[in-house]
């Protein structure tokens, strides 16, 4: 069964709707993704390009001779990855979906650049954002409430 799921960038300028056929997603650890996102890995959902409708077209970064990446030039949100040619599919960043909780990681890609110490963080101290009073105070002073 397929569903449509919506998503977009942090500032709301770029929005998309994508047809989703499964909960399967993956983590990419390759150096290109690490450099493009400033993170040790990025969670991707692979979809057919034809199944993505952009409410406002994203900006595109030509990240290498073989690939390009949709993003928002206003807020900097990374929205995905796409080969320049030879594939009907593309990746959307899991975190860009309005409700990313549906997706489950099924595999790792770019394992040669994986930083294993960051994979299993079970047992590390955890703190909720809404329990960090200094942060709550800043949000309330700026906007009147904590963001969702």
Which class in CATH terms? Alpha Beta
Number of strands: 10
Mean pLDDT: 95
Question: β content, as a range?
Answer: 25-35%
The value of Rg in angstroms is 17 Å
Quick summary:
This protein has 148 residues and is mainly β. The protein has two helices and ten strands. The model has no long low-confidence stretch (mean pLDDT 95).
Q: What does this protein look like?
A:
The protein has 148 residues and is mainly beta. It has one domain (3-118): glutathione-dependent formaldehyde- activating enzyme (gfa) (Alpha-Beta Complex), CATH 3.90.1590.10. It contains two helices and ten strands. It has helices spanning 31-37, 133-143, and strands at residues 3-8, 15-20, 24-28, 42-48, 52-54, 59-61, 67-71, 80-83, 89-93, 104-109. It has a seven-stranded mixed beta sheet. The chain has a three-stranded antiparallel beta sheet with strand order 1-2-5, with no helix packed on it. The radius of gyration is 17 Å and the shape is globular. The protein starts with a strand and ends in a 5-residue tail after the last helix. The mean pLDDT is 95.
């Amino acid at each position: 069964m397929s569903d449509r799921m919506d998503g977009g960038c942090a500032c709301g300028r770029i929005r998309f709707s994508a047809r989703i056929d499964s909960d399967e997603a993956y983590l990419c650890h390759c150096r290109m993704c690490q450099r493009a996102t400033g993170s040790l890995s990025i969670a991707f959902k692979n979809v057919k390009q034809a199944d993505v409708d952009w409410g406002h077209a994203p900006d595109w970064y030509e990240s290498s001779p073989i690939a390009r990446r949709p993003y928002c030039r206003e807020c900097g949100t990374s929205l995905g990855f796409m080969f320049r040619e030879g594939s009907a599919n593309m990746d959307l960043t899991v975190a860009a979906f309005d409700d990313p909780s549906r997706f489950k990681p099924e595999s790792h890609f770019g394992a040669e650049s994986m930083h294993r110490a960051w994979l299993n963080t079970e047992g590390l101290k955890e703190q909720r954002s809404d329990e960090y009073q200094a942060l709550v105070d800043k949000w309330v002073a700026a906007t009147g409430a904590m963001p969702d």
